[in-house]
Amino acid sequence: MATRPDIAAETGSRFLISDLCKMLESYLDEDQVQDVYRAYLFGAEAHEGQRRVSGEPYIYHPIAAARILAELRLDHKTIVAAILHDVIEDTPTAKEQIADSFGTEVAELVDGVSKLTQIEFETQAEAQAENFRKMILAMVRDIRVILVKLADRLHNMRTLGVMPPDKRRRIARETLDIYAPIANRLGINALRVELEDLGFAALYPLRYKVLEKAVLASRGHRKEVLNKIEAAIKRRVGQEELQGRILSREKHLYSLYKKIRDKTLSFEETYDVYAFRIVVDEIDTCYRALGIMHNLFKPVPGKFKDYIAIPKANGYQSLHSILFGPYGVPIEVQIRTEEMDKIAESGVAAHWVYKGSEENIDQMNAGAREWLRELLEMQTHAGDSLEFLENVKLDLFPDAVYVFTPAGEIMKLQHGATVIDFAYAVHTDVGNTCIASRVDRQLVPLRTVLRNGQTVEIVTAVGAHPSPAWLSFVVSAKARSNIRHYQKNLKREEAVELGRRMLERALGVFETSADKVPGKRVRALLDEYHLKTEEDLLVEIGLGRRSSVLVAQALSPSGYGGSDAENNGTAMQPLVIKGSEGMVTRFSKCCRPIPGDPVVGVITGGRGMMIHTQACRNIADDKYPAENCIDVQWEPGLDEEFPVEISVIVEEHRGVLARVATIIGDTDSNIENVGIEERDGLTNNLLFRLTVHNRQHLARVMRRVRSLPSVIKISRTKG
Asked: From CA 13, how far away is CA 10, in angstroms rounded?
C-alpha cells in the first residue's frame, strides 16, 4: 500500500547522496557511481540557495527522484539525468553546459523533462498541453525521459501535503489522468500503484480515509482466512512437486475505489476477494499450476484470462483465474514466471542490461515500441497540443478487445472499438479507404462495436475517404487523429481551389489573370499579409479571411503601376458552382437552394462560402455586409442531388402518408426525413425533406403529389 503523503514528507528528505551512492554500488561500476556523485555536486551548486515549499534544500528532491530510479536499477546516465532534471528549468544553467560536463545523451534526457519556460501561453491548459507534447516527443527518442519524469512526479506526490489545496488537487488530477496511466501503459506497476494511491489521497481525501479505515477494520478477519487458503495451496503444490513462490496480495486503495465506483458495488462485494500469486520457473509450469488450482478449487465460468498467450498492450503476461474458494468466498489467482513477475513490476525498466549497459530504447518490449510509434503518428496529425493531449488521454486506457484478421492474426483494440477503429489499427490507408466490413462473414455497419474473438474483414475502395460522421463513434486515438487530419487537408485543398476561382474571377475585371501577375508583386503582397506561399493566399481567400476583390485590386495593373482596368467597364463574371465543392462551399439549410434557383454566395470568415437563394430572408434582411456577397450561378447540366423541403397539407385519413411517399418515390426522388404536424383534427401537414436534381425535377414531384385527391395544398418551404 502507498505511503501516506504526510508520512513521506517527513522521511523523504533524510535520504542523502551517500545513501544513493551506496545503493548504486550494488549494481554499477565505480566510475559510473563517480559520475553520479559529480552530477550531485553540479546540481547542488546550480540549486544553491533554492528551497522547496517545505523549506528543505531543493537538491533533496532530485536525489529522491534518482533513488526511485535506482530502486528500478536503471543505468547511470538515467540516474545522472534525474539528479540534473531541474537545472535547465529552474536555474540559469544551459543545456550546452550539461552536454559539456556529462555528454549529449544526458543533456537530451534533461532537456526532454524540462518545461518550456521561455514561451508564454494564453492558458494553463495550453501550457500543460505544449509541455506534455514536448516531453512525449523526447520520450519517443529515448524512453528514459518518461522514466525520469515519473520518478520526479512520484516524489512530488509523496511531498504534496505542503502544497495549497487547489494546487494539490490540480497536480493529483493530472497524475491520475496522465502519469499513472503512462506508468501502466509502460508496465511499471511499482510506480503506477503508488502514483494512483497518492493521487487518490490528494484528490479525494475523505473517500481515501473512509476506504482506508474499512480496509483496516476488515484486515484482521481476512488474515486468518488468507493463511488457511495459502496453506491449502502450498500443501497441494507440494504434493505435485511443483517449485514456486506463493504470495497473498491485497488490492491497493485506488483499485478498490475504481471497482466500487465503476461497477456500483458495495465495499464488502469488492473487498471480499482473496488474491494469490504463484510465481514459477517456466511457462509450461504456469499451465501445470493452473491445472492444480482448478483441481483444488472449482473455476468460475468465464473468469479465466490467458495473458501469456495474448499479452496486454503494456507487455504484461500472466494467467488469471477466479475460483470458488472455501468459506464461500472467491479466490483470484495469478500465475506467472519469475521473468514475467519482474516485467509486471518494472515494465520497460526491466529491459535494461544494468551492469555497464549503454543500451537504450531498442531493449524495451515490442508493445511499448508500437505505442511510441503510434504517439509519433498522432503528434504528426494533431492540429495543436490540446488536441494531441486529448488523443493521448484516450489512448491511455486500453482495456483490450481481441479480434482476428481473416488471416488469423490477433489484433488488440480498445474496449468499445468499432469496425473503423479496427481498419485504422491495420493501416492508416485501410482506414481512410474503408467502405464496408464483414464480421464473422456477415456484412455489418461501420459503427458496429467489436467483441472478443470475432473475425473482421475490411472492404476498401480506391477513391474512398473518411467521413466526418465517423468521429461520433470511433474510440481509438489513432482513428480519431487520422480522420481529423484527413478532413483538415481536404478542407485546405478545397479552399485553395475555391480561392483560385474567386481570384481569377476578380482579376477578370482588370483584364488579367493570375499567371500574368509579376512574381515580385505577388511576393510583395505575401510579405504584406505575412503569408509564406501563394497557396496560403488562396486558402485565405477561399475561407473568406481575405476579400478576392481587394487582393485582385492589389495584384492588378493599377496596383503595380499599369493602366487602370477598372475604367474599362469590365463586369465581374458570376462564380460558377457545381454543387459538389465540398467543405468550403456549403448550401444553406435555411433556404436549401437547388439548380435553377437564383442564388448568391456569402463569404463567412474562416468557414468558406455559403450558398443562399436570392429570396432567402437571411439575405433580404441585410444580415451580411454587401462586400461579403458575390454573384454565383449554377453550372449547366448538373447531375447532383440536392435536398429540398416541401409542405403537403392533406385530409386526415388512414394511409394518406404512405400514398404521398409512394408518389414521391415514383418520381425518382429520395425521402430523407418526414415530419407530421397536426392542424385542426381534420387535416395534417406532412413535412418532407427529399432530394431532387433541379427546379424542374421538384416541379414534377409537386405536380404528381398535387394530383392526389387527399392533397389540399403543397408548397416548397424556404427561408
From this structure: 7
Please give the angle made by the CA atoms of 199, 202 and 205, to the nearest 5 degrees. 120
What whole-number distance in Å separates Cα of residue 690 and Cα of residue 687? 10
Alpha-carbon radius of gyration of the chain: 34
Catalytic-role residue among 10, 35, 56, 89? 89
Enumerate the CATH 3.30.70.260 domain ranges in the chain, comma separated. Answer: 642-716
CATH of 208-350, one of 3.40.50.1970, 3.40.50.2300, 3.90.79.10, 3.30.460.10: 3.30.460.10
Q: Which of 682, 689, 696, 675 shows the shortest CA–CA distance to 717? A: 689
Residue 532 Cα distances to 93, 169, 425, 488, angstroms: 36, 44, 36, 19
The CA angle 606-607-611, to the nearest 5 degrees, is 140
Q: Specify the CATH class of 5-203 in words.
A: mainly alpha
- Record: fold of 399-475: Ubiquitin-like (UB roll) (3.10.20)
User: Which SS3 state, helix, strand or coil, does residue 642 take?
Assistant: strand
How does the average pLDDT of the chain come out, rounded?
Answer: 80
| Identity of the amino acid at 651 | E
Domain with CATH 3.30.460.10 in the chain: 208-350
89 as an active site residue: the answer is yes
Cα separation values, 718 from 44, 670, 699, Å: 75, 19, 15
User: Which class in CATH covers the domain with range 642-716?
Assistant: alpha beta
What single string gives the DSSP state of each residue in 113-164? HS--TTS--SSHHHHHHHHHHHHHHHHHH-THHHHHHHHHHHHHHHTGGGS-
Question: Which candidate, 147, 74, 75, places its Cα nearest to that of 110?
Answer: 147
pTM tops 0.85, yes or no: no
Active-site position among 19, 29, 71, 90? 90
What is the phi-psi region of residue 373: left when phi exceeds 0, alpha when psi lies from -120 to 50, beta otherwise?
Answer: alpha
Cβ partners under 8 Å of residue 435, min gap 6:
459, 460, 461, 464
Could you count the other beta carbons within 10 Å of the beta carbon of residue 13? 18
Distance of alpha carbon 193 from the chain centroid: 23
Residue 338 falls in the annotated catalytic set: no
Residue type, 206: L
Name the percent of the chain lying above pLDDT 70.
Answer: 81
Q: Is the model's pLDDT at 359 over the cut of 90?
A: no
Output the pLDDT for position 365: 52
CB 362 within 8 A of CB 349: no
Task: Please tell me the distance from the alpha carbon of residue 530 to that of residue 547, in angstroms, as a whole number.
Answer: 16
Rounded CA gap, 280 and 90, in Å? Answer: 47
Q: Give me the residue label for grid cell 409542405.
A: 647
- The 10 Å Cβ neighbour count of residue 499 is 27
**What is the band of 631 on the pLDDT scale with cuts at 50, 70, 90?**
confident
Residues of the chain with CATH 1.10.3210.10: 5-203
Judged on CB neighbours under 10 Å (0-12, 13-18, 19+), 597 is buried
